[in-house]
Write a structure and sequence with these properties.
alpha/beta, about 20% strand, globular, 9 helices, about 280 residues, 6-stranded mixed sheet
Length: about 280
């Protein structure tokens, strides 16, 4: 069992380039009351540097576990996870290669928005003036600089999600992991966030890996969609999405239809036979 990542990045003054992410023969098992719970088994996946990859699949198939592997929050039971070139350094939270935003914002209630965004830098010992400057820049990227002094209880759901995204971006990570960050938002707000996320990615082509349950969202954002099998999770199908960018909220035309049909067919194949007639229909 191996986990590898490159050493610390050196400051060049340029926008960061995305790093490739590779998983080879990865399995993850968690202890359970009735024996080990195998979340992933023999999973192979290569994510190109600077790409936007979306992970979609049945509930419980290990999508979030996959992201936590890349972030260094979970250790594989077997297999290899590599962020960047193969090397001796084990990826760990806070090492600067990977930023992650979760489904819930997870803001510290007694800190201001600015201090919540700056928290990774605070934990890393970055001087106060520097972390304040970088936190303000991160907040400006997500349109939240005017809320720097507010506490989490004073933020709307959408503002809290923006703050969480700014916190993930503050270190300018070459790899950004997003675990259903907009799923709790209403449909119109979610579509607006998708457009903003696409804009941020087009500005800086870091490697993005995002989990969603929405086929429409996957097609709006992804270069390719990874459809996973039911637990234990593996890659069932890779669907390339060859649409020009920037992409509008409503997608029409043959390529969008082809991608949607391919994703839905792959998802339906992962469902129990008695549910497949339900999953073949429309979904959000």
């Amino acid at each position: 069992m191996t986990i590898t990542a490159p050493g610390p990045a050196t400051g060049t003054g340029h926008a960061p380039q995305g790093l490739p992410v590779r998983l080879f023969g990865v399995s993850v098992a968690f202890p359970g009351r009735d024996g080990p719970l195998v979340a992933l088994r023999d999973l192979d996946l290569e994510v190109p540097a600077g790409s936007f990859t979306v992970i979609i699949g049945p509930n419980g198939c290990g999508k979030s576990t996959l992201l936590r592997l890349v972030a260094g929050l979970v250790t594989p039971s077997s297999g290899t996870v590599a962020v960047g070139s193969m090397g001796p350094t084990v990826p760990r939270p806070g090492d600067g290669r990977v930023g992650i935003a979760f489904q819930q914002p997870r803001l510290v209630p007694w800190l201001t928005t600015l201090d919540n965004v700056a928290l990774p830098l605070t934990l890393a010992g970055v001087p106060r003036a520097e972390r304040r400057r970088r936190a303000l820049e991160a907040l400006a990227r997500v349109g939240l600089d005017t809320a720097a002094g507010l506490r989490p209880r004073e933020l709307s759901g959408g503002m809290a999600q923006r703050a969480a995204l700014a916190r993930a971006l503050i270190g300018d990570p070459p790899v950004l992991l997003l675990d259903e960050p907009f799923s709790a938002l209403d449909a119109l707000t979610r579509e607006a966030f998708d457009s903003e996320l696409q804009r941020l990615w087009l500005e800086r082509r870091r490697t993005v890996v995002m989990v969603t349950h929405s086929v429409g969202e996957a097609i709006r954002l992804a270069d390719r969609v990874v459809v996973m099998t039911a637990r234990p999770g593996r890659v069932a199908r890779l669907v390339e999405v060859e649409l020009p960018r920037p992409r509008p909220v409503t997608l029409t035309g043959g390529e969008a239809v082809r991608a949607e049909e391919a994703i839905r067919a792959a998802l339906a194949a992962q469902q129990p036979v008695e549910l497949r007639s339900w999953t073949d229909g429309d979904a959000p």
